[in-house]
Amino acid sequence: MDPLVRYAEDGGTATVTLDSPRNRNALSRRLVAELREALTTALGDDGVRVIVLTGTGTVFCAGADLKEQSAGEPPPDVPGLVGLIWDSPKPVVARLNGPARAGGLGLVTACDLAVAPDTATFAFTEVRLGVVPAMIAVTCLRRMDPRAAAEYFLTGEVFDARRAQEIGLINRAVPADELDAAVAHYTGMLLRGAPEALAIAKRLPREVPALTVEEGFARMAELSAERFGSEEAKEGIAAFLEKRDPRWLP
Q: What does pTM read for this prediction?
């Protein structure tokens, strides 16, 4: 049986590819299980510094596998999968090869960065099927403009990549022939960051806004002092002063 998820590693970057084009990379139980396995492999490999999530075919991810759902099969562990990406200490970049719908947008918003071709389209189609974007709302509502989220959750309307960028769903919409260059731009910059520093830095936009100003300054002063005293900082500053690359570069 051919795998539904493919894995490759090169130069510190692991590329995890959804490879089920026959059903538009829908989140079947097997695809979700294989995707979780591939991500776990990347997270457990010290040689992997950055993860790229992409797909084959013309669609990035169509959301839930409706045939499985209508057959009454147990649902896949989408919350666990999205949580694994969200909590990853290694940066995850979504390279959308095409449109994303419904649950597929949970994958997109769980990633730290997302790049899509400007021809891609997006939609939260759940209400048109009598369901709601419940599980993916956990990550989507932490990325998107609230007014826009309400609009698209309620209407199920299809919108384009430029609008997706405007409302915070993705970082960049680029011409299709510039997609790989845009992803390489991000991965190249991420590889220059220190591993521990990246893991901490990705938490700041999520955690700091929940603090009061007083708590924020107190905690961040403590964190800043801790990081300046870290081994990574010593190496990074030394590399800067000596005009060389830090040792953590692949």
A: 0.96
Segment (H or E) for 141: none
Backbone phi and psi for residue 23, each to the nearest 5 degrees, phi listed first: -120, 30
| Main-chain dihedrals φ then ψ at residue 233, nearest 5 degrees | -65, -40
Cβ atoms 122, 161 nearer than 8 A: yes
126 classed as catalytic: yes
Give the residue among 13, 22, 95 at the shortest CA–CA distance from 54. Answer: 95
Question: Do residues 103 and 85 make contact, with C-beta atoms less than 8 angstroms apart?
Answer: no
Structure confidence by residue, pLDDT tens digits, 131-184: 999 999 999 999 999 999 999 999 999 999 999 999 999 999 999 999 999 999
Pick the catalytic residue from 126, 196, 232, 242.
126
**CA-atom Rg of the chain in angstroms:** 19
